[in-house]
Structures are given as C-alpha cells and as structure tokens.
Amino acid sequence: MLSLNQVLVEFTCKNRPKPSLPTEWALCGEREDRLEVLKTSTFALVISPGDGQLVASAGCNMRLFEALEVGAIPVVLGDHSKLPYHQLIRWSEAAIMVPKPRITELHFLLRSLSDSDLLAMRRQGRFLWETYFSTSESMFNTILASVRTSIQIPAAPIKEEPAQEIPHKAGKMAGTDANLADNGDLDLGPVETEPPYASPRFLRNFTYTVSDVYRTWNHAPGPFHLFPHTPLDPVLPSEAKFLGSGTGFRPIGGGSGGSGKEFQAALGGNVPREQFTVVMLTYEREEVLMNSLERLNGLPYLNKVVVVWNSPKPPSDDLLWPDIGLPIVVVQTEKNSLNNRFLPWDAVETEAILSIDDDAHLRHDEIMFGFRVWREARDRIVGFPGRFHAWDVNHQSWLYNSNYSCELSMVLTGAAFFHKYYAYLYSYVMPQAIRDMVDEYVNCEDIAMNFLVSHITRKPPIKVTSRWTFRCPGCPQALSHDDSHFHERHKCINFFVKVYGYMPLLYTQFRVDSVLFKTRLPHDKTKCFKFI
C-alpha cells in the first residue's frame, strides 16, 4: 500500500516466492525491492495467516519488521494475530489492527487518520524497530529484558562517566563583582543554611520494573537501563508539604506564601529542596575561566562546579583557582570533543545541571530564576539565549537562525539548565552518527541536545529573561563569530533531520518572567526579582 489514494497490490512474483505456510501469503521479490516500495508508502498491509489457530508466523513478522524499518505503518488484517511481545508493547500506538470482515472499510478507516496521528504512529514504529528488532544484539537484549521484566528484576544501572580529576591549587579568595551582585534589596537564597547535598538516587528501582512497565517499554530509551532519577517521576500533592510527607520541602512563608522576602528565603515549588551543578566546558582560556568561576561565588543552591578541561595540555602549574566556598572539580577528558559537555560525569551528584560556557556572562538573579523555572519544567531545556530553525524555500532545506525573532525552537546550552537524565541519553542512547558529526565539525552539540529533548518530550524549550546573548564583554572572540560556524550549523540541522526521520524541533512564542514582574505592589511588598 503506497498512500491514502494509491494502492499497490501484486498477485504475481517476478521470481520464485519465499517458502511459507500453506495458509499464509508468501513473501514476493527480494528484500531490497520490497523496502524501496515501502519507503514511498504510508501504510503496509500485513495479512495474518488464514488458520485462526495460528497467532503468529515468520512471514507476517517479516512484513511487520520491514514496514517498521522504513517508517511505514503496518496494517494488520486479522485481529487474532499476536504481535511480538504483545504483553509489553502497545502495538496499537504503532500499527493498525483490523478484523478481516472489515476489509471493505479499510480505505475509509485509513483516510480517517489525521496527519498528527500518522506522525505519532510512524515515530513509535521506528522507535520499536530501532530499540527491539533492528539487530541481533537488540533482539537478544529484548529477550533478556522481557524475561527480567516477567520476574520483576530491575535493569542494570546505567553507567556514569568516571571523572579523572586534575589536581589544582585553590589559593585566591573570590571577590564579589558589584555589577553581578546587583539584585536589588533582596537576598537570593539561604547560602549559609544549605550546605552541599546530593539528589537522592535510585528511589524507584522496583517501581520502574513493576508499575512503569508499559511506559518503559513504549517510550525511549526502553527497558534496558535503570536510571538514578528521571524528569518524569511523579509529583506529590501540596498536602505532602504539611501532612506527613514533608521531608525536604521548603514552602514559601512556611506555607502561608509571600512576596519577595519570603520567596527568596525558600525554594517553594512542588518538589523537595535540591541543588544544581554547574558544568563548564573550557579550552585553553585560563584567564576567562578564572573570571567566570569567581563570578559564581556566593551563588545559592550551587552544589559544585565541574570544569570539563577539553585541552590535552594541563592547566598551568602556577595557576591559582578561586576559592568560592564549594568544590571545583576539574575533569581531564580523553579527547577534545564538544560531546564531553554532556557526558554523565559521576562527579555530578544533582539532577539539575547548569551547562555554561566559560565566557558566559550571567547575573546571579538570572541563574536563580532559571533554576526555579526548571524545577517546574524538569523535562525541558530551560535557558537564556534563544534560536530557531527556519525553512529555506529556495533550497528546500532547513536553516539555523540566530536573528531576533518572536518564535524560537532552541535554547543554547552555553547557558541552560537540563536534567542529568538527558546526559545519559545523549551519550549512550542518541545515534552515534550525531555525536560523530559534532566531532567532525567541532560544532552543533547544543543543536543535537535540543533535537534529543524535543524528540523525547515533543515539547519546545523554555526561554527565561530578556537576554538574546550572554557573552562577556572583553572576552576573546568565540568560534561562533566565524561565518563557517553558521554554514556548519545549517548542515547539522539537515543531517540530524535525516537521522531522526523528521524535524523534532517545535516552536514556542513566549518567554518566562517572574510572577510579580511589572506588577504594581503595595509599599510593604517586594518583587520576586527586581529585574526579572
């Protein structure tokens, strides 16, 4: 079947058909020829064996797998068929099951599907193929995972990247930049009363295996890994803060609410207290790096700073690192790669990661506001500089665009919060071809992360504050000022679209500001943030 209006049915084979069961339609032609037809098809008809006692066959499964491989939607004629792992996989999200007596209605049933339904089913089918059936290794892992699930044994914990720390001397007391510290008359948070602490890990091991079976089997990345935490964990109701389950919550005003002063003294929100880790990528810009680290002094809710040292040359022996009152872990990388920014380092002990360039110039109040917003949108990228993908009508391709716009679809990870869960997916689950292109161009890792998160969530990122750029004045010229930088990013976007099979980025037309921003207040009230 080719499309909604064209149908291809062949009753004769150009060559000898493959051996099959007496009650089953034989596979016709060579695999390559069948795949070429399926590549131009929206649907692929899979006729179940005529024997009602036979619930599956090699021929039916072969047609099913070939359709999934190229993105066609399988239409299984015969509702007595049992598709592979039907007790775990929701095949209704990727295939259409039609009883044989309704064959005369098939054309009208297929025409009733909307474009969004077609996309969702093709995406899901491709996910099932790549995850469970594409290689002998994936099929073997699927068998093991199904057995493990049936006896309620959790998957093995996903690996973390061991941080090979570079020794360094901390001898310079960090000062305070008056421009960065100007947050009005408000404190930004209880620095003294919140010492560094890690996010709880592996709290839902058994739950993932028992209660979340269908979600883990039917959503990326599948059931093969156990994650220490995810951005999809359920949230307790507000009563939990006050009636028996209040461990770790920090309600504003003790639960009575409040404006600026009460707001700054507690994290509030819907989840318990937590901190974030700054991950800063750097390459042979020691002075710029030291200034950026020094600006982090006194930042509330900061757990530690992980500096990803991307240079093969170690830091200078006489380099004095600023003392910001928190650990600074300098990690030596195996090679110079922008993908190192998103490695799930074991030194990162929090769910929240603030990925930041060594020349990024952000005020403390901007960082704190971004953190608070991320806590309410944990499955999204939350950051500052927005960009968007545009369509080139003349060349019929995608473009990367950094112009000022009322729409955006990407937030640059040179200054953005994201969940550590996505670092695991980027490094170990995302197609290797994307990471290879990042290494080839030494570019586009931020675009790749935006593609990944939008593909997983089907949501756009969230931009906070009015910033469109974040570079520090007086810093050396960055790579992004080179014209070739943008040409490479155009190529990256179009290549990533080919890898995913569609454009996963989604547009958004709003940014986030604090609740009382530009609100006229009584004299005894203060704003959440003075400038945000």
Structure description:
It is a single chain. β1, α2 and β2 form a beta-alpha-beta unit. This protein is 29% helix and 14% strand. It starts with 30 loop residues before the first helix and ends in a 20-residue tail after the last strand. By secondary structure, the protein is of the alpha/beta class. The chain has an eight-stranded mixed β-sheet. The protein has a three-stranded parallel β-sheet with strand order 1-2-3. A three-stranded antiparallel β-sheet has the order 12-11-13. The radius of gyration is 27 Å and the shape is elongated. It is a single-pass type II membrane protein.
Number of helices: 15
Largest sheet: 8 strands, mixed
The averaged pLDDT comes out at: 88
Distance between the termini: 55 Å
Would you report the number of β strands?
16
Residue share in β-strands: 5-15%
Question: Uncertain segments of ≥5 residues (pLDDT<50)?
Answer: 178-182
Going by helix content, strand content and strand pairing, the class is alpha/beta
Can you give the helix content as a percent range?
A: 25-40%
Based on CA atoms alone, the radius of gyration comes out at 27 Å
Pathway: Glycan metabolism; heparan sulfate biosynthesis
Catalytic activity: 3-O-(beta-D-GlcA-(1->3)-beta-D-Gal-(1->3)-beta-D-Gal-(1->4)-beta-D-Xyl)-L-seryl-[protein] + UDP-N-acetyl-alpha-D-glucosamine = 3-O-(alpha-D-GlcNAc-(1->4)-beta-D-GlcA-(1->3)-beta-D-Gal-(1->3)-beta-D-Gal-(1->4)-beta-D-Xyl)-L-seryl-[protein] + UDP + H(+)
Organism: Pygocentrus nattereri (Red-bellied piranha)
Domain Exostosin GT47: 31-113
